[in-house]
Amino acid sequence: MAALFPLDVFSGFGPTVIRPQTFVPSLGRLKSRQEDKLRKGVRDSAPKEAGVYGMLGRHGELIYIGKAKSLRARLLSYFRESRDPKAGRILKHTQTLVWETVPDEFAALLRELELIRRHRPRFNVLGQPGRQKCCYVCLGRSPAPYAYVSRSPTGRDVAVYGPLTSASRASEAVRRLNDWYGLRDCSQSQVLHFAEQGELFPQERTAGCLRFELSPCSGACVGACSRTQYGEQVRAAKAFLDGNDSRPVTELTSRMMQASTALQFERAASLRDRLANLQWLADKLTWLRQARRDNTFVYPLTGSDQRTVWYLIYRGRVQGACYRPTTVESAKIATQLLTDVYGLDTRASLLPSQIDHVLLVSAWFRKAPTETAGLLTPTAATEFARAKK
Fold first, then answer.
1. Distances 305 to 23, 50, 102, 309, 325 between C-alpha atoms, Å
2. What's phi and psi for 301, nearest 5 deg?
3. Which site among 80, 159, 343, 386 is 20 to 30 Å from 209 CA-CA?
4. Distance from C-alpha of 51 to C-alpha of 7, rounded to nearest angstrom
């Protein structure tokens, strides 16, 4: 009789793009219900190399994924009396240990995240898909586009920005953005009427909400602006989201300082709140742009076997890996991979499932700034590879 909720039995670590195709990982598997036998097996056969390891439950399901600079040292730490309480709980449910070597610690970090997202082990917390809900700031919905927050962009918008991890902060920032640029934020059911739309029998129209009366909205529903004028405001809002126009932040800062100097503290506080939300959005989008624009390079890293791996990082994510070319054949492999990776569509949006990868790569270079000294541009790497042919 089939189980109501069938278990996902672990059948292997699976493919990956974060190690060279010619790299042959060392795989290990130890099975026993007794901790002493597992410990002895680790001591006898686990390599002193970087890699990832998995712990399987009694039905063969993957319950935990970890990484290590030295697989042998890390796995032996689970059997010490001074081990972490969580490690003891995991080991209590473990009947099989599996591992896979990788070229270096950087690959181990990325492989761990990849496997957690693929297999979703129940004892792993960080890296689990859906753990952190993401949203996007969208500029769209014709005929009068405006800024709004969505967890699932339609792809029909003028522009999409993100992902962002705080929907509440993003919503408040979007409200301030629409107010600043005079964009509507009403529902799609609201009938719009631009100034240039002629009528055989003109009629007096009533605004759909109070925003027009209070001035934050241009009044596309009552013909108070033309389609051209509204389009200019949309383009101005896009310039801010693109990082090309900082006037909302600079003008609000100036107004806040003037109000404070004039002892108008309530007005200064109101301006401060508006500024804080727009500044938060600008900072988040700036970080995302920099992470994706600046983090495009080839990262050479020499492993314990003294072979240098080229990690091809495109817009903050490792999209491929190969060994540094030393022969005609390896040069052909590297040249083709460089062409495939750096010829990607630069307009592709960053998906929520990819943000952890970008953060991990950024954190690696932030913690080890000296690693940036040997980075190669895609052009320099391609020229090096072609010279080996």
1. 11, 11, 11, 11, 16
2. -140, 125
3. 159
4. 25
Q: What is the largest CA-CA distance in the chain?
A: 92
**Strands across the sheet containing 62-68:** 27-31, 96-101, 51-56, 62-68
Of 15, 16, 42, whose CA–CA distance to 31 is shortest? 42
How does pLDDT run along the chain (389 residues), one tens digit per residue?
A: 444 545 577 888 999 999 999 999 999 999 998 999 999 999 999 999 999 999 999 888 999 999 999 999 999 999 998 888 888 899 999 999 999 999 999 999 999 999 998 888 988 876 555 556 788 999 998 888 999 999 888 778 888 888 888 899 999 999 999 999 999 888 877 878 787 776 655 667 777 787 777 778 888 887 788 889 999 999 999 999 999 999 999 999 999 999 999 999 999 999 999 999 999 999 999 988 877 777 899 999 999 889 999 999 998 899 999 999 999 999 999 999 999 999 865 555 566 667 788 888 988 998 999 999 999 999 999 999 999 87
Burial of 17 (0-12, 13-18, 19+ CB in 10 A): middle
Identity of residue 374: G
Residues near 287 by Cβ (< 8 Å), separated by ≥ 6? none
Separation CA 32–CA 29 (nearest Å): 10
Residue whose C-alpha is closest to residue 86's, from 125, 119, 141:
125
Distances (CA, A) of 125 to 6, 61, 121, 131, 210: 22, 17, 9, 8, 46
Give the span between the Cα atoms of 256 and 348, in whole angstroms: 38
Distance CA 358, CA 340 (A): 20
Question: What single letter denotes the amino acid at residue 165?
Answer: T
Closest residue by Cα to residue 243 from 279, 217, 276, 210: 279
Q: What is the DSSP letter of 312?
A: E
Rounded distance between C-alpha atoms, residue 279 and residue 177, angstroms: 11
Separation between Cα atoms, residue 386 and residue 377, nearest integer Å = 14
- CA–chain centroid gap for 95, Å, is 34
